[in-house]
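Postdoc handover notes: sequence design on the structure in folder B. Input tokens:
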């Protein structure tokens, strides 16, 4: 009797198919990352998928497409700022800017952003203890000196005067903005990643900017919604 062997998942450092999908997504937006940066992104993906002692961090389905789905999505604010916004406001992104991510969960998008922008100080804000423990574990493993993990709700984190605040699929845009607005400095910017159909009602809102995009091999469309604190 033949006994089927469990499938061995490739490390993302060896998963050429996923690497190609991520590379194509970045090339589509005219972004090139260093080999060192890409290597850290692959290592982060492996830590999310393989680490078990902090609970179930990712579904089995998503664990097979972590680069093309979650890393690519997490890098969208970086692409937008560096390639889109920067063309209009070259001084928008400055060394030592402070960036907080609300409801950071298992670290997307804040860890990929911190890897891509080591000059920025990031705060991963998350109240759930096991997620906080995991993110501190990853911070140490990847030697991310520009990352601080804050184990609180954003409203009680004490973070203020921030240059950027982000979140990914947390709540409605209106609820997320209400939570973020008071902690942004004047001229600061809020960025949130949503499915496109969830923010269709904002299409004609002059206070927001909507940047539409698609992800490799994903059927639905997505949007980065940004709003400045004037």
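Designed sequence:
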């Amino acid at each position: 009797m033949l006994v089927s062997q469990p499938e061995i998942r490739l490390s993302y450092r060896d998963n050429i198919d996923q690497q190609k999908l991520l590379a194509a997504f970045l090339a589509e937006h005219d972004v090139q990352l260093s080999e060192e940066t890409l290597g850290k992104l692959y290592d982060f993906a492996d830590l999310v998928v393989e680490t078990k002692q902090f609970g179930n961090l990712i579904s089995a389905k998503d664990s097979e497409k972590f680069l093309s789905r979650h890393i690519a999505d997490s890098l969208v604010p970086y692409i937008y700022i560096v390639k889109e916004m920067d063309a209009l406001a070259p001084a928008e992104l400055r060394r030592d800017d402070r960036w907080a991510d609300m409801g950071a969960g298992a670290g997307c998008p804040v860890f990929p952003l911190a890897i891509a922008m080591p000059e920025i100080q990031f705060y991963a804000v998350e109240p759930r203890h096991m997620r906080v423990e995991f993110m501190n574990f990853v911070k140490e493993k990847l030697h991310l000196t520009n990352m601080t993990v804050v184990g609180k709700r954003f409203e009680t984190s004490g973070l203020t005067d921030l240059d950027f605040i982000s979140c990914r699929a947390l709540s409605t845009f209106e609820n997320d903005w209400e939570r973020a607005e008071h902690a942004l400095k004047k001229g600061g910017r809020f960025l949130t990643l949503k499915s496109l159909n969830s923010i269709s009602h904002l299409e004609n809102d002059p206070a927001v900017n909507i940047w539409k995009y698609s992800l490799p091999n994903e059927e639905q469309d997505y949007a980065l919604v940004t709003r400045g604190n004037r």
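Context for whoever picks this up: The helical segments are 16-28, 35-50, 60-63, 66-74, 76-88, 110-116, 129-142, 173-181. Don't rerun without checking with the PI first.
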